Amino acid sequence: MDDQASRDAAPRYVSVKFDPVGRARTFLLPDVDFDPPLTPGEPVVVQVGDRKAYGAAAVTISTIAERTAPRGGRPMSVLRRASRDDVLRRLRHEQREREAKRIGLLKIRERGLPMKLVKVEQLFDGSKLVFFFTAEGRVDFRELVRELASEFRVRIEMRQIGSRDEAKLLGGYGTCGRPLCCTTWLQSFEPISIKMAKRQNLSLNPSRLSGACGRLKCCLRYELPNAKGEQHAGCAHESSCERSAGGCGAGSTGGCGADGGACSDGGCGSCGTR
Question: How many CA atoms lie within 13 A of 241 on its CB side?
C-alpha cells in the first residue's frame, strides 16, 4: 500500500515535441487523469512559462523524463488535449508561417540584406511572428521589421542564430546515418576543438570532422568529460574498453572496431554492433 501511495504521489511526466524534427521536452502532467491516456502523436496544449504552446505527445521514458524535467521556477505542464479548434488554429498558423517566410524572402532579396532566412514561427496565441535568420555580422533590419509588421499586423521578432542552431531547427542526418544529435537530444552546445580529435587519434580531415552545420561535430567530445565532468557515452564508461587517448576508435582490444563489440552498450556513435 505504501509503495502504491508513493507511486501515486510521485510527479508524472510526459514528453512533448513542438516540431517533427525537434527534440522532445519534458512536461509535468496535471493531477487530473487523462482518460484515455495520452498516446504518442496526440496533439496537446502545454504551458511554457507565461504562454501556451501547441505540441504532440511523444514516447515517454520515465527515467529519462524525470532526469530532464525542469527544476525550479514555474513548471512546464500539460494543460489539456488539443481540441478541434486548437488543431484548426495550428493549421492556420502553419499556413501563415509559410506565407510569412515567402514574403520575408522576397523583401530580404529586394533590400539586398546580407542575411539568410531559416524559419518562421508564430506563437500559439497569434500575437507574434518570429523570424530566425543567420548572418555573418550585424544586420540593420529595422525597415524590414516595419514592412513585415504592416503586412501581417502582429509583432515581429528577428532572431539571429548560429550555424549550429540552424541545423538544430532544420534537422537532418549525420554521417553516422542517425538523426542529428542537436535535433534529437542535445540540450546545449559545448565548445569543440580540434584537440579533441587529436586525443582520439582521428584523421584530421576537415570533411570528416565537420557536421551538417559546417562546424566540428559535437560527437567529438562524447568520449571526453564536459565542463561538469559528465560523459554522454563511450568507452570511458566501460571497464572493458581502453581508456587511452585513442578512445573508442583506437586499439584492437575492446575498441568499437573490435569484433567483440565490447562498446556496444556504451553508445559510441561509431559502433557497428549497436
Answer: 29
